[in-house]
Each structure stands twice: as structure tokens, then as C-alpha cells.
Design brief:
This protein is an alpha+beta fold. Helix content is 33%, strand content 27%. It is built from 14 helices and 18 strands. An eight-stranded mixed beta sheet has the order 6-10-11-18-17-16-13-12. A five-stranded mixed β-barrel has the order 1-2-3-5-4. Strand 14 and strand 15 form a beta hairpin. The longest helix has 23 residues.
């Protein structure tokens, strides 16, 4: 038998087809057995009639269980009552393996999130998870495509570091041949060395944050799309951030229409993001809008919390940029704005529908004296950053960069309730297995 995918069979619409996959659902009657076959492309209903198959095939069909793997051949035809409007009348059936009783109930209205996480290695087969992971694959492809087209080089940095980081308390400590080292929080500091050779670079790699957070937006291990480029300043950096987000959205809308429909994702707000320029407001303007439009008073100098980000984005139907946050609450490498020294030359991109910060970026401070001053204020050990200061000593130039949380992007695109469903095997405070 020459096998085709379920989707290819659906596209064919008529004739004899040979398929292989897994039993997604089964229903056994006295003289016929219905199975819904799934593969990575789609599902299709198949009917096995006792009178039309051999005794062995009928005997095997009677023993079929959820997730049994099979090969089959039959005639496909239109059937409006079937899940995908077509049905296959089976004449040949080969069992690859009879599955044991599936541990996840298949006909319950509500399934515990913890149960699904315990069996993530099996739940990953579910059509909803499959749809999300297909979109995830498109997102990764699109990010790479965008930067390659713009002349960026993909650049890699170590995942094990000596501790140079954004915020020390959220570092994951590891034993490195008897020495205390840490999992990386960002590729940025190595990228700042890399731009002096390659000028324009990007990466998509895991980052690790030991944040004691149980929100629907946080993972302890997540994929980080990061960008660093020589010679550019904040306005151009904002353009790049907007362009890559639009490029990815457009690619997903083109490639994953079927998956978005399956997820019941209303794509109007994604389409709106393609048509409009993302608003750019300062931190000061954000506080003013919150006070005037949402009756929320935020003291100047405080970072925007989740609730404030959500209220602010309710005022827009596209992502927005918030620039010039207070310098004192920003990472040490974000420089003061000469026009308003109490603020930093930086930005966050906030996305609507309650998904908050998607991208954070800034120009990079090129003054060693200012970097040391900020590090001391943060209680960091200056000697750990000796090699980092060298990037400012030998031909320093203006440069900027940003980091995009890929799972947050996927969560927004798919309109997921929790970020853990945007990654195959999530790592959170409470979840490190399977």
C-alpha cells in the first residue's frame, strides 16, 4: 500500500486510499465499528462493516482501543455526519500495535490541568496541542526568515554562565565541576561582543528565569528570540520589533488558517495589528492614560504591573510601545536619556487581550563608568563584568537590542489561557516532570 496523509485523503475526496495513524475515537456496534483515525495532518471517520471484511479483520477491529496504531485501506466518500465530512469504508486493516487502556479519559467534559500535565507525554498527541505546536513551528520559521532577509546572522552563546545577568536573585545555580555557575537568562551580553564582528545578529534559544511566579504568563525555561545590532538607536529598534511581529503574524495567518479555526481563534485583532502602525507612548504618557481613562494612579518611578499593563492595552486594538521607563528600575545596561536623565532609552512592547509584555529592549550604555555605577547600585560584583567592559574599551559603537518571549507570542496568537500550552513540555515552579 502507498500511504497518504489523512489531509491528502480529504483533499482527494473519492477513490481508494491507504492511510496509517492512530485510533483517536472508537465506537463498536453489533455489525459495524466506527473509528476516527488521526495522523499529524487531520482526522477522518472510518467504518468497518462486519459483512464486508474478513473474520480476522473484524476480530482485530473488535479489540481496537484508543491510540492503537493501524494501517488501513478503503474507499473515501462524502458523509456529512462525519467529523470532517468524509468517511472511509475499510476493506483492509493491519494492526501495528494494540494500545493499552489510555490513562486520560477521552469523553469527559472537564479534564484536570494537573492530570494533563502529568501525562503531557501523551496529551501532546491531542489535536488541540498539535494545532498549537504547528503554529509554534511557523512562528520559529517566520522569526528566522525575517532576520535572514534583513541580513542578520544567527549567533549562539553559552547556556552556562558565570553569573552576568539582568537580575541576580532569579538565576538558576548549577554545579559545574565543583564550581557554582548559572543557567543563562539572556544571550545579550555575549551578543554585545558578537556585533563587533558580525554587526547584525539574532538567536532563538532557551533562557532560564528562577522567578517564583505562578502566573499564566511565566515559565522557568522559555525560548527567547533576541536581537542585537551595531549602529542602531531606539527609533530604528522599534521599527525592527514592529516589523518582526507583523511578519510572524502574517505568516501564521497564511500558513495556519486551519489550526486557528480549530482553536476558535478570532483573528480580527491579529489582522488589525497588520494594518495599523503600533502606537508609541512614553512611560509618562502611559501613567497619564491610566489615570484619565482607567482611574488608576501609578506613582512615578514604579514599574507597570500586570494589572496596569492589561488596563493600558485595553485602550488599543494593536500592540503598543511604552518607552522611557524610569532609569532606577531598569537593568544596568540601559542608558540614561540625555533629554530626560531620570528615564532610560528603552521600551516594552505590550500586546492586547491580557497578554502583557511581549518584547523588552533598549539602547546599550557604552560608558564603563555609568555601567559600574548602575551595577554597584544593584549590589552586583563589578569584577564579574570585567570581560563585558572590554566590549566598551576597543572600538565601542552605539548599539541596541531586544528580547522577545516566543511562548508569550504563541500564547497571544493562539489566545491560550496559560503559557504552559505554548511549549511541548513546560517548566514552572511546580512542574519539572515529565
Amino acid at each position: 500500500m502507498k500511504f497518504i496523509s489523512v489531509q491528502q485523503a480529504l483533499d482527494k475526496k473519492r477513490g481508494t486510499v491507504s492511510l496509517r495513524g492512530w485510533v483517536y475515537r472508537e465506537r463498536k456496534l453489533k455489525d459495524k465499528i466506527f473509528i476516527v483515525l488521526r495522523d499529524s495532518s487531520n482526522i477522518i471517520q472510518c467504518i468497518i462493516k462486519k459483512e464486508k471484511v474478513s473474520k480476522q479483520i473484524w476480530k482485530d477491529a473488535e479489540k481496537l482501543t484508543i491510540e492503537s496504531s493501524v494501517e488501513l485501506e478503503g474507499s473515501i466518500y462524502k458523509e456529512k455526519r462525519a467529523p470532517t465530512n468524509y468517511e472511509i469504508s475499510v476493506n483492509k486493516l493491519k494492526i501495528i500495535q494494540f494500545a493499552e487502556k489510555f490513562p486520560i479519559p477521552v469523553r469527559k467534559q472537564y479534564l484536570s490541568p494537573e492530570l494533563l500535565l502529568d501525562y503531557r507525554h501523551l496529551w501532546i498527541r491531542d489535536p488541540k496541542m498539535t494545532a498549537i505546536l504547528k503554529i509554534r513551528s511557523t512562528v520559529f520559521d517566520a522569526i528566522r526568515e525575517y532576520f535572514k532577509k534583513q541580513g542578520y546572522y544567527e549567533f549562539h552563546a553559552p547556556s552556562i554562565t558565570s553569573g552576568v545577568a539582568e537580575t541576580g536573585p532569579t538565576l538558576f545555580k548549577i554545579d559545574y565541576f565543583g564550581k557554582p555557575l548559572y543557567l543563562t537568562q539572556t544571550w545579550q551580553f555575549y551578543a554585545e561582543a558578537g556585533i563587533f564582528g558580525l554587526e547584525k545578529i539574532f538567536t532563538i534559544a532557551p533562557s532560564f528565569r528562577a522567578e517564583r511566579s505562578k502566573t499564566s504568563r511565566h515559565l522557568a525555561e522559555y525560548w527567547h528570540a533576541e536581537v542585537e545590532a551595531a549602529w542602531i538607536k531606539l527609533p530604528e529598534l522599534l521599527d525592527i520589533a514592529e516589523e518582526v511581529v507583523k511578519y510572524v503574524i502574517k505568516k501564521v495567518l497564511q500558513t495556519n488558517k486551519k489550526e486557528l479555526e480549530f482553536l476558535k481563534r478570532d483573528t480580527k485583532i491579529l489582522e488589525s495589528a497588520l494594518k495599523k502602525k503600533f502606537p508609541r507612548i512614553t512611560y509618562d504618557n502611559a501613567l497619564k492614560l491610566l489615570k484619565e481613562k482607567k482611574s488608576m494612579t501609578v506613582k512615578w518611578g514604579k514599574d507597570l504591573r500586570t494589572i496596569e499593563e492589561d488596563k493600558l492595552t485595553e485602550l488599543f486594538d494593536t500592540p503598543i510601545f511604552v518607552t522611557n521607563y524610569p532609569k532606577e528600575i531598569m537593568a544596568f545596561y540601559k542608558p540614561r536619556d540625555p533629554k530626560k536623565p531620570e528615564t532610560a532609552i528603552c521600551f516594552d512592547m505590550l500586546v492586547p487581550e491580557g497578554y502583557g509584555e511581549l518584547i523588552g529592549g533598549s539602547e546599550r550604555d557604552t560608558s564603563i563608568a555609568e555601567l559600574k555605577k548602575s551595577l554597584k547600585a544593584a549590589g552586583e560584583k563589578i569584577e564579574k563584568y570585567k570581560w563585558y567592559f572590554d566590549t566598551r574599551r576597543y572600538g565601542s559603537v552605539p548599539h541596541s537590542g531586544f528580547g522577545l518571549g516566543v511562548e508569550r507570542f504563541i500564547s497571544w496568537i493562539c489566545h491560550l489561557e496559560h503559557i504552559r500550552d505554548a511549549i511541548p513540555f513546560p517548566r514552572t515552579m511546580a512542574r519539572y516532570w515529565p
